[in-house]
Amino acid sequence: MKIGLATIYKCYNFGSFYQAYGLQKHLEDLGHNVYFLPLDDLYNKKYRLRKQFNRDIKRDLFSLKSCLAYNNDWHLLKIAKKSDRDFDLIIIGSDEIWSINNKTFTPAPEYYGVNLPCEKAFCYATCVGRSGFSDFKERPDLLEGIRALSFVSARDEATESFLKTVLNRDDIPRVLDPSFLIDWGKIEKPVSRKNYILVYTYDGSWGFSNEQIKATKDFAKSQNLPLVSVGFKNDWCDKSVAASPREFLGYLRNASFVVTDTFHGTAMSIQYKKQFISMGKGKQKVESLLDEFGLANRVCSDENPFEKIVSNPVDYTAVDKIIGEKRDFSKAFLSEKIHALK
Asked: What is the pTM of this model?
């Protein structure tokens, strides 16, 4: 089948790439022709560039290196032409495409099943982020678009609850983020650096708090390891590295420990079987992911400091069993719904 994907695919964020490419590659492995719908408007592109530049010379140079690195990997994403309307099926998702309060991108109607080039459509592993049902009071058209979808599924607890309210039903399937569907080792770019603590968090006010920074630096000192921030210029780390999504995987593989507060930083750490510390306390989608795999004890807090977390390594035998079961369910969901809409 010729399948179109409605999601965010070209932004300077590793997670966006992993969810987009992960779903594309899995569907291609099933024998389908897969293309992303060209929904990225000029506002989105300008906003991302403004966020990357116009800060100071050193940060702008780092941002330039990052942008070039992303461009090296974006060629793996197959994007349809605007004139291409000949699709057999549309799959909406994944990632925060239903986060209507998120000002970093425009809420394209297509993300909600509206104005699609094909009547047959369902959503896979969508996420509302920090938005909720009440945030859609001025956009009933988007809620109607969701209700018109043939099938739905949620990536996290908040989105599951949202869909229960929108559809007035309880049987909402929870599926894995597409990043869990493929083997990343096949496209990973190896790196030479070893013996470090990988830090993956945004820079500035979106990143770690001052308390979290201090705890991370104290932990690095206790381990006698440097802190390497990959993807963002965090000057409180010993080194900041501009990297492509595939290079990030190489840094992830070689890291002695990982400290992150992001959803995909956590998801990829789990897939790479890393000993990681989560700074995601209070971040619903991160906590939901950790709960799903029985890893709530990886969240750093006053009651659960670095030392306590590190002294209890992740038992990946148990985690892999959970992932295996959920991956089988998620793949079956996709295959069954695609077959049903043939």
From this structure: 0.94
